[in-house]
Amino acid sequence: MLETERHRIILSAVQERPVVTVGDLCALTGASEATVRRDIGQLHLAKKLRRVRGGAEAISPPQFVGINARPFAVNQTLHIAEKRAIAQAAVDLCEDGDAIIVNGGTTTFQMVHPLTTKRLQVFTNSFPIAEHLLKHSKNTVLVPAGAIYREQNIILSPFDTDGSNHFYARRMFMGCRGLGPLGLMEGDPLLVQAEQKLIDQADELVVLADSSKFNQRSSLLLCPLNRIHTVITDSGIEDRAAQMLEAAEVRLIVAEAATDRKKRAQEE
């Protein structure tokens, strides 16, 4: 990742939270501690943030604190070919007339393009997913009540009465922060609260997770593996991760990205 991009991510992070630790910024940027500390030092000297022990804070602290999740604009640039293939495989599971829940995220956002050929009832807490489907499809679109979190482009409510309990779905499609032996993980309590409400409204939980998610962890457990019906990932999944899902009796679908298909065709 280029230095200018790291700086943009760091400045965005300190505007979301009162204080961001070096560890948080390493996770967001994929850079080493030494690199992040150097970036913080440069931005501190440029008076764009304030260096504090173990991290950084905004010079003008935000009035409205965001959630602990990587910004949508950043995630959207990562593993894009894999996400498109995973999203297509997810939409292939849907039939016209189905009622589905699509949780906010950059992998689930890639579902909007193949969904334009379907006629479904779609409940989503993703502002860009709802907007795209309204403009470019004939799907019925429903959204919960709540506040729009701009950085993540999702609608979240701290209250139980957000309307989601009135929607029943055959399947819920969602991404995640990480996926491990204990189950599905997220990074913020408000996200966990909102997603648990939605999970309870669907018969089947389908997780869209590129292969990098099997190596990521978080302190917050969203649901155990045995609650997941299907995991859709890419061909980079390691054998141990596939065996973990098999042991939990979770259906595994491996979606091949266009770049992988082209490479395989050249080898043949």
TrEMBL record:
Q: Which residues form the HTH deoR-type domain?
A: 3-58
Superkingdom of this protein's organism: Bacteria
Q: Any signal peptide, and if so, which residues?
A: none
Q: Which GO molecular function annotations are given, in alphabetical order?
A: DNA binding; DNA-binding transcription factor activity
Which UniProt keywords are present, listed alphabetically?
Answer: DNA-binding, Transcription, Transcription regulation
Instruction: Show the InterPro entries listed in the entry.
Output: Carb_Metab_HTH_regulators (IPR050313), DeoR-like_C (IPR014036), DeoR_HTH (IPR001034), NagB/RpiA_transferase-like (IPR037171), Tscrpt_reg_HTH_DeoR_CS (IPR018356), WH-like_DNA-bd_sf (IPR036388), WH_DNA-bd_sf (IPR036390)
Keyword Cell inner membrane assigned to the entry: answer is no
> Which Pfam families does its entry note?
DeoRC, HTH_DeoR
Question: Has the keyword Mitochondrion been applied to this entry?
Answer: no
Coiled coil (UniProt feature): none
Task: State the protein's name.
Answer: DeoR family transcriptional regulator
